[in-house]
Design brief:
By secondary structure, this protein is of the alpha/beta class. Helices cover about 30% and strands about 25% of the residues. It folds into 2 domains: about 5-160, no CATH class; about 170-305, Rossmann fold, CATH 3.40.50. The longest helix is centred in the N-terminal third of the chain and has 17 residues, at about 80-95.
């Protein structure tokens, strides 16, 4: 019934264009005739076919000209946006792309595009509709763990730091909390005790979802230390000064250190601190019981008392 083709091979050296394409569902799965165009790095061909089989048609919106779709593929997550979608947008912008950027319906997505120089009138937010594109543009795309994104990540970092870094204020010690949203996983179950410990070292607590991106970057571009549970907020270590201190907290049931590439590139003093567990005794699922003794030991050694 359908054939699937690779639309965003990481080895592609030039943009690819596809005429008369439909984008279906929340992910924006491209369909051209009987060809499914896999523009994703995180989803396999079979998954796309399953989604298409169960898709219920929605309002169909036509977009003329050339469109670069950047929504879907986990791009509503800040890490996936910064490490996977935003490098594609930067490559398109630097290559002279003059069409429409179709992005997740999130402020940080629009704000980052504006910060790299893309005009607001060329940014359109996907609203959950199905789309008909006169012409779809795709560029090579890589997983956020791929070292090949290092150059693009460095350029993005330089652009954002040029806007927000101030060498006179490199003093913030930041803790990023996930406990403000009850729907978040990986909350810190003993956060009150952790905050009391961090207060002794002069930390400021932030809940990133409550702050506009510019305010987030004003803090993190000028931070000397970043502590937080594993989550999208730890992406901000990418924008800190080089050789900063980063402590990332994990539950033993979910250890996925997505920021290792940035920490290596920037020579951060990175420490992965996992909750204490013996055999299968851990009772908090993916939530995190901060190992306070290790946190204190690490901060004392790195910062002094």
């Amino acid at each position: 019934m359908y054939t699937v083709i690779d639309g965003c091979s990481s080895s592609a050296t030039a943009p690819r264009y596809f005429s008369q394409v439909f984008l279906y569902g929340e992910e924006g799965i491209p369909l051209q005739g009987n060809r499914v165009i896999n523009r994703f790095t995180n989803f396999k061909n079979d998954q796309l076919l399953i989604w298409l089989m169960h898709h219920q048609n929605k309002d169909l919106i036509s977009i003329g000209g050339v469109t670069l779709p950047l929504y879907g593929d986990w791009s509503s997550n800040f890490w996936h946006w910064c490490y996977e979608a935003l490098p594609v947008a930067l490559a398109a912008h630097e290559g002279g792309f003059s069409g429409t950027y179709l992005i997740p319906d999130l402020e940080f997505a629009a704000d980052t595009l504006k910060l790299i120089g893309i005009r607001p009138d060329r940014i359109r937010r996907a609203d959950g509709s199905d789309y008909y594109l006169e012409c779809m543009c795709l560029l090579g795309k890589r997983l956020g763990y791929d070292r090949a994104i290092s150059e693009a990540l460095s350029r993005l970092r330089a652009i954002l730091r040029a806007e927000f870094a101030d060498c006179r204020t490199r003093s913030h010690r930041l803790y990023i909390s996930r406990n403000g949203n009850t729907e978040n996983s990986r909350k810190v179950v003993n956060e009150a005790e952790l905050l009391a410990l961090l207060e002794r070292f002069g930390f400021l607590t932030l809940q990133m979802e409550e702050l506009p991106l510019a305010e987030q970057l004003a803090y993190t571009c000028n931070a000397a230390v970043l502590v937080g549970p594993h989550g999208a907020g730890m992406t901000h270590c990418t924008f800190m000064p080089e050789k900063s201190l980063v402590l990332e907290l994990f539950a033993p049931t979910y250890v996925n250190p997505c920021v290792l590439l940035a920490c290596e590139l920037l020579q951060h003093r990175y420490f992965q601190i996992t909750s204490h567990a013996f055999d299968h005794s851990y009772k908090h699922g993916r939530d995190i019981h901060a190992f306070l003794e290790i946190v204190e030991l690490t901060l004392t050694r790195e910062l002094g008392r």
